[in-house]
Each structure stands twice: as C-alpha cells, then as structure tokens.
Amino acid sequence: GTIDVGSSIFDHIDCNSNETNMYTLSTKGGTTTYLQDDVNGNCIEFDTVYVEMYGDDTNAGTQDAPLKTITYALQLARNNTTTVIEIGPGHYSPSTNGETFPLTIKNNTHLIGFSKDSTIIDANATEEKPRRVIEIYDGVLGDWVADNILIKNFTVTGGYHIDDPWIGGGGILVGDPVNSLNISNLANPKPILENLRILNNTGNTGAAIYAYTGITFFIRGSEILNNTVIQGGSTMEDAIVSLFSSNVEIYRTIFANFEYTAIAKKFGHEVILITNSTFSNIPAASWQSLYAL
Question: What is the pTM of this model?
C-alpha cells in the first residue's frame, strides 16, 4: 500500500534526498510506499556515528557526544552512502541500555563493535518474549543486491525464535522475515559477518544463523557456539541453513557444542565453501553435516 507522510516533521532526514532514512520508515518485506514530499527535520550530518554505554540518545552521535542505543544510531544512517556505526565496549540489551530488538540492518550500513569479547549484543529473549538479535534484509532478488552490509566485532546472544516453521534464525536471520515461500519477492542481502561470537541463541531451525536469501553471504573469523535448536520446525539444523540458493563462504570460523548438526543445506543445490575452519564437540556426522562439508 501507500502512505502519504508529506509535510511531516521527523527528528532526522537525509537532506541529500529530502527523505527519512530506511530505518525510520520501512516495513518488513518492503510492502509499503511512503510519499515524502516536503518532509522536514534535522539533516543527518555524519558518515560515522558513535554509541557508548554512557552515551545519550539526545546527543549528536559524535565521538565526543555518543549515543546510548544502536537502535537510535540506525536512524542516523544515510540512504545511499556508507554509514559506519562504531559501538564501544558494553552489554547492549533491553535491560541494560534500553536496546530494542531485533536490530534490523539494511544496505550501506557497517555496524562495528570494539571487540567480540567486550561488545555484547543481547536480545534478552525468552519463550514468553521471543525475538531475534539481528535481521538482515534488503535488496530484491533479480533486481538489486544489498552488498554493502558489514557486522563486525560482537558477541551476538540471547535470541529466541521458534514461532515460524519455515524461517528460523534465533541469533541472525539473513533474508526476508516475512515472505516465507514467496520466492518471486525474495530479499537479496549479501552481508559480511566478521569476528563474531554467536552464542547461546535458540531457534526452531538455524538457531545461530538462518539464511533465506538468493545470493552468497560471508562468515569470517567467527565462533558459533552453544546454540540450541528446538524441535518443531521443518528441519533440525542448528547452525546455518541455506535456503533457496543461498550460498555461504566460511573462513577461519569455529563451530562447537551443538546437539544436532553444524551446517546444513535445505535442498542440496546450495554452495557452501569452508576454509580453515574447525568443528568440535558436535554429534556423530549426519547426512546434513556430511553433505555440507
């Protein structure tokens, strides 16, 4: 549908396009068009935005005046050029700094923590309050690729998502969280996931990462540990699931402590390239893990 927000006033707008950014007005699956003639607001001024636990969301987002939440920092991202969001050490969660989850990451966004040991993104999710930690979706299959997305230097934890039998991902979802089997309108993100520790997430399938996209994405220098799959989804893979020709390249990544399988394909035609990675404390190889490797 279409919503006319013309002449409205927002906290921030991208003055180059005279529109709000993609994080301020958007819908899952991109099903709504917003008419933004003559909108007003403070211009987004910086290509790098800073977040610290001691910050304040009324600040400018500079290094000397950082913001408090990643959620608010995303509202200062530009639409058509790269915005880097630098996040300092700390435990970012609903209970500590008022963070909102899932964090939805779109194109031209580089989300960079201080280190995976010291910068923790925690959804604090439970069966009563389920939510993923991160959802990465943008682009349109067959039209354009969202190929400028980087998530680096974090522990990603506390996700819980079991209510969809087709689309998993307790920690991270790469792809469209809505369209399920509608391949004609599939999202098309191509993120780089680098130096992450994806830890203690729960999902019906793909408890750590579930990929539902039409292109290759990348996992580099990461650790995927202690994630739990809950029976009741369409399959029983609890690390990475490639679906609808979603390919993945994995480099120098550690997989450990899974009840079921480490990596699995949905249909068998997906390409999974693994280099210099290790697998430990996982069950005897099943057909899924053998096929992926």
Answer: 0.88
